[in-house]
């Protein structure tokens, strides 16, 4: 039975390459055509493959529906939380998780610093969208036309002398973030708070969330915080791997 299941599942990656006839499927599996036909018929009955008019087989609509349903039911917060806790245990600083929803970037998880000085951020609270590192990552992933339109309609409050002053500067920053794959907020929202962030990506490579490590200057300098960037990026990659269903990534804190 396990061999039959294995053979049937092996057909799906083959058809992902494009439609294939019975002979090609049999050759790829190393089985007789009659065996390949039985497997294809079973997959066809479940809507996982479809037989075209030219007698070649392709992936079926049911497979795509199942994939979409699975993605919609994934909870990035639930997947990310154990990773955020481990990162917090490793570095001791505040760890945030954020998503982009309805023109706002919202914190959806937070692990508090172990140090006495705490941040006032709250789960469910929008971030300062023009300066926050997590916001830069989420907005940098938008198509260019959307990025430009968003930048033009935003306000640019000057929280500190390091705040992003206008749309042109914001678009330039987003272009840099998009290219390098990480972001910072070094005193842009609060002069005493610094932050480094990395993206969490889905199976299609798009950014679905962003995570960050933040700390006040009285605990670590900006330069010291930046040394944690490789660890933050490895944690984000581990979450991305689990969220997208790729081979699990080794615990980045070990």
From TrEMBL:
One Pfam family cited in the UniProt record for this chain: HTH_IclR
This protein's record includes keyword Transcription: yes
Segments crossing the lipid bilayer: none
SMART domains: HTH_ICLR
Keyword Transcription regulation annotated: yes
UniProt KW keywords: DNA-binding, Transcription, Transcription regulation
Name recorded for this polypeptide: IclR family transcriptional regulator
Organism: Streptomyces cinerochromogenes
